[in-house]
Design goal:
By secondary structure, the protein is of the alpha+beta class. The chain is built from three helices and three strands.
Length: 71
Amino acid sequence: IYGSQTIMIGDTIYLYPVYEPDRLDIRRTQIGMSLISEYITTLEKLYNKTVIFDKNITFEEITNLQKQQRK
């Protein structure tokens, strides 16, 4: 719902898909969270990794990326 769940695949951090991604920043600010772009920047600095938030990615695609990484 808030875009805070992530998964590391290789050297990249992916944010899991969220419900109504175009309204994500509205939901986040309503409960006092930072904008998603600020959160991504924080994660990139903290972990020194690329963070990807793709509004169109599905859980299935994330799972497939994870499976490919394990091979």
